[in-house]
Amino acid sequence: MQDGHGKDRNNPDSLEVEQPELVPIKAERGVSPALAGVVEQLCSMGMHRETSGLYGTRCSVLPSRDAVVKIVEDLRSVLFPGYFGISELNLESMRFHIGATLSRVTQELFEQVWRGVAFARGDPAPDQCVECHSDAGTIVTRFLARLPAVQKLLAGDVRAAYEGDPAAASPDEAAFCYPGVMAITSYRIAHELYRLGVPLIPRIITEHAHSITGIDIHPAAVVGERFFIDHGTGVVIGETCRIGDRVRLYQGVTLGAKSFPLDEAGMPVKGVDRHPIVEDDVIIYSGATILGRVTIGSGSVIGGNVWLTRSVPPGSRILQAQSRTDRFQDGGGI
């Protein structure tokens, strides 16, 4: 039987088979030759991280963002038992739930921490890095020991949200619903890991919360007790911020850097104090922008949409200039 080109379809020898163009890499199952070239180009930067690295880091392992997010959710269920995770808990089942969850978190967090440590060190053979595993074990043990103190801080944050917002019907509502409480919880977990010297993972935690809540808190920032962010969207708290106790922020507040020094290559110098210091009992209303290493004295109130690049003494009230309407009649005032 012949096809339209005069070839016998029943005789394989009579068929002219068009040979595909060979590509330098072996195409995986299900990858067409046309895609194989694209695959090679995408791999060209990141292929063999142990020898070059996508961005110059020599390491064959990376932390898993998905695994870190799951750990944070497990920790949230431990820090707020009955509110997140399993909701029907009594005293006995709560002990079992917290114990079982922490046992799982211990293993999963150890895995991610040693990966982060190995990645930061650029270890070309992380599985054989005894020091990486030892350091990760010490970090996880110290972190877990800090959880009761973190829970106490978060209880104060929830109480501040309830007392600071007339729309909050109960502290439970603040714990369940408020994006500020969610972002602060992630920050307090990340901050403890940052203090213990864990690379990369604290930023994964706070940036995940940022993507959900719109609240950007750098894990290196230092935040005191009973911290409340109302509404929250657009809040930015920079790396070297220092925030005291009983501080309240509203949506759109920026505690940022005015400028930063550059090195000889034109790159920002890392680790320079460049963000505001906010002392105790300060309220900063929506849209306010405070830039640079300035100090907002205790008990001060910063009004909405204020732009501030200087320090203010304790008890200050900084507001926008009052608007003024002038009438010009018969050329008066011109």
Description:
This protein is an alpha/beta fold. The chain folds into 2 domains: 59-214, serine acetyltransferase, domain 1 (Orthogonal Bundle), CATH 1.10.3130.10; 234-322, UDP N-Acetylglucosamine Acyltransferase, domain 1. It has helices at 33-46, 65-79, 91-121, 130-145, 147-164, 171-177, 179-195, 201-213; strands at 216-217, 222-223, 228-229, 236-237, 242-243, 248-249, 254-256, 277-278, 283-284, 289-291, 295-296, 301-302, 307-308, 317-318. The strands form 3 sheets. Strands 1-4-7-10-13 form a 5-stranded parallel sheet. Strands 3-6-9-12-14 form a 5-stranded parallel sheet. Residues 48-52 have low confidence and may be disordered.
CATH architecture assignment name of the largest domain:
Orthogonal Bundle
Tally the beta strands: 14
Strand content: 5-15%
Number of helices: 8
* Uncertain runs: 48-52
List the main descriptive attributes of the protein structure presented here.
serine acetyltransferase, domain 1, 334 residues, 8 helices, alpha/beta, five-stranded parallel beta sheet, UDP N-Acetylglucosamine Acyltransferase, domain 1, 2 domains, single chain, globular
List the helices and strands and how they pair.
Layout: H1 33-46, H2 65-79, H3 91-121, H4 130-145, H5 147-164, H6 171-177, H7 179-195, H8 201-213, E1 216-217, E2 222-223, E3 228-229, E4 236-237, E5 242-243, E6 248-249, E7 254-256, E8 277-278, E9 283-284, E10 289-291, E11 295-296, E12 301-302, E13 307-308, E14 317-318
Parallel strand pairs: 1-4, 2-5, 3-6, 4-7, 5-8, 6-9, 7-10, 8-11, 9-12, 10-13, 12-14
Helix pairs in contact: 2-3, 2-8, 3-4, 5-6, 5-7, 7-8
